[in-house]
Specification:
The protein starts with a helix and ends with a helix. It is an alpha+beta fold and 75 residues long.
């Protein structure tokens, strides 16, 4: 295994099935589907559908959450 392979394995996958994303974060598959359907999450950025399976880009989803957090101001 090369150094790059080791680094990729250590950092984990960038894309995971929506069911795995739910296990990791608690965000349900239905929520992911809703975000895709209403355009909140973009296909090819935060979500992808491959062979009828729904995937989530962990890094892009985390960045979306950070962006939401930084745009909201406390009352």
């Amino acid at each position: 295994m090369s150094t790059n392979d080791n680094a990729a394995a250590a950092s984990g996958p960038e894309w995971v099935l929506a069911s795995k994303y739910e296990e990791m974060t608690g965000v349900t598959r239905e929520t992911v589907k809703q975000r895709k359907k209403n355009g909140t999450w973009k296909i090819g950025q935060q979500v992808a559908v491959v062979s009828r399976r729904l995937y989530v880009n962990i890094k892009a989803a985390d960045q979306w959450i950070k962006d939401q957090n930084s745009t909201r101001r406390p009352a």
